[in-house]
Structures are given as structure tokens and as C-alpha cells.
Amino acid sequence: MPIGEVLRNARIRKGYSFEYLEEATKIRAKYLQALENENFAVLPGQVYAKAFLRTYARFLELDVEQVMAEYNQLSPETALHKNETEQPPPEPAAAPSSKRWHYAVAGFAVIALLAFNALYHMGDSPEHNKPELPNTVQQPPVNQTLPSAPINNNRPETGQSKPTEGVRVVLKVTDSQSWMQIVADGKTVFSGLVNPGETKDFTADEKIYLHVGNAGAVEVSVNGKDLGRLGEPGKVRRQTFNAGEEPQLTQG
């Protein structure tokens, strides 16, 4: 069955008018009639003919691929647009409006004015274009004497020793064991037996308290000063050394 007859029968079967189809498919009614009449020369080109035919067949719920295949098999005499280009014809270029012509004239006038202004200023003398120098004279730098560093007259005299900070106690066990407990600034830092030949070194910020058994076996020095043995062999000795005081052994 010819393509046009297939389209017409489908439209009549659904009861569609060309006015309704034009609104629904956005294809002008005369082009829809041309498709049904197979008057493809009325259509604006092969590209539009195929597009209109595909849209119309789909809207009528026909087999679109079969309809397009039958259209492609038409002879060149029937489908007049078979060998036409796939691109729609270009629209003719619009003539320039009078407003564009006015803009062009104004542009030429501006260019001419700028050129005249440039030529006018090229004739100015160099003296006229010379920039004015500021009427100021730079003063020579004034020599400034930097203040000398202050002289420290509070230096200690030669031979004057700096007072020792804190307290340091060194205990050396000589010929027999000795038990000892050491408290530095109120905290016990050692408690136990010390063998002969061993040395214990303790420091504190304020004071060191010694509790030593067998004092005769322990030699002591405080802040580098040798005080000898703490006491007699087998005797218990308690001794306190304070920071800032002259170290010495007390009796008892």
C-alpha cells in the first residue's frame, strides 16, 4: 500500500482533522496533506520531508521504520528530493539597517578626531612637554652622634667569688658498709646500704638532711669543702646542711 494511503487511512481511523494535527505535531496542515498525497515537492527539502514523515507516522502510531523504508525505496521521479542536500537552504543575509549605518559614520568621525588630536600635539615643542621639577633642595644629611653604650661600674672586684647557689653534698664510704637516708628539700632521695668505695652525690635548692649509720666510715664534703668523717665508727649521725650557710659539722 502506498505511503500516502497508509497515512490517510490511519488519520481517518482515529478521526483526526488537519487542524488538530497541525496543533499537535507542530507541522503545517499543507505539509501533512502533501505527505498523504505523496506530493513531496511541496515540502521544503528532503531533510524536512523525512522529519515530517517520521513525526506524522509516530503520532498516528504506525510502524515508523517500515514507513521510512518504503519512502527510501521510492524512485527519484516520485521522491523529487532524493538527491537534494541534507542541509536546509541558507537564509538570505539581511541588509544593514540604517541604525548600523549611523554607527559606522559615528565611528569614522571618532577615528578622524583622534588622528587630528595626535597630529596637533606632535607639533608641540620639547620645552612645552618638559615636566616641571619640584622647587626643593635636598639638604645634606646631618652627622648624628650615636650615644655610647653605658659603662657598667658594678663589675665584681678581682678575686671576689660568686656565692654558691643551693647546696651540694658528696658522701664517700671508705672501709665498711654504711646505711644512710638522704632528704633533699623535704623529699627522700635515697635510703639504703652503701658499700665501701662507693660515692653518693646529692643536690638541693634549700637544704639536705643526712641520717647516717656507722658515721666513722663516711667522709663528707659540702659545696666543695671537705669536712672529713661524719663521726665515730658504729655511731649514728644526723646532720643538716643549708644553702647559703658556711658548711660545718655540728656536735652530736
TrEMBL record:
Chain ranges of the Cytoskeleton protein RodZ-like C-terminal domain: 173-239
Region (Disordered) location: 127-166
Molecular-function GO terms, alphabetical: DNA binding
Pfam families xrefs: HTH_25, RodZ_C
Bias kind Polar residues: ranges: 135-163
Name of protein: Cytoskeleton protein RodZ-like C-terminal domain-containing protein
Annotated organism of origin: Desulforamulus hydrothermalis Lam5 = DSM 18033
